[in-house]
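User: quick one, fold this
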Amino acid sequence: MKNILDRYLDRVLVYANKSKSESESIRKELRDHLLQKVDDLVQTGISREEAMLEALSRHGSPRVVGYGLRGAFPWIDIRSHGTARGVIAIGPKAVGIFAFGGVAVGVVACGTLAVGVFSAGFLAVGLIWAWAFLGMGGIATAFIAIGVVAAGMAAIGLVAGGATALGVWVPNGDPASGLFSHYTAQNVPSYLRSLEPVLNDCTFFGRHAITIFLPAYFLVIFALGYLKYREGKRVSSADDWLIDG
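Assistant:
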């Protein structure tokens, strides 16, 4: 039967998710460090068993220590707890170039709350583009859209279009139909009129969201959920002898 130190190190290495050679090196280094801590505590007059528990408690939970060993920004970081950070980050919270999570922040972000250059989710904020139930960004396509160019059931923007739209320029604006425009077709500036093709593309995108984009979105969410499930199952396979922080 493994002693408590080996069980602790097993748990740490499960979270660290390193290669076999890296794991062996990390195990040796941590073991030497912790045994030195135990020896130091024994010198204070407590038993070796008490010293071992105290040393492990001070060192930190396996989850925190293990995740800390993954590196600052790996290529792929998948976590079932906490915040994933990597080029591709997947977790309850995710920060990365490509970020997928309940809360996601990245260049490309997808999540319940997504913030990025390009973002998609229930609530999405995108510097260039956002697609969501509530979307805000440079170009926003959403049920409720707010942006420079906004298209949705309800849209507010510099240029806006939808069932209800409010904007500086709303093509075919008619207050009676829920389309409120500051400018009319006769006096709209050319730079605003030049954004109409973008608005038309957004409107097309929005109209086809249910048949094309929503299934793709939920397929991505399902795939990400499966990856998080696999990670959670892999982590839970370790001996859960210590309460994780």
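User: anything notable?
Assistant: The radius of gyration is 26 Å.
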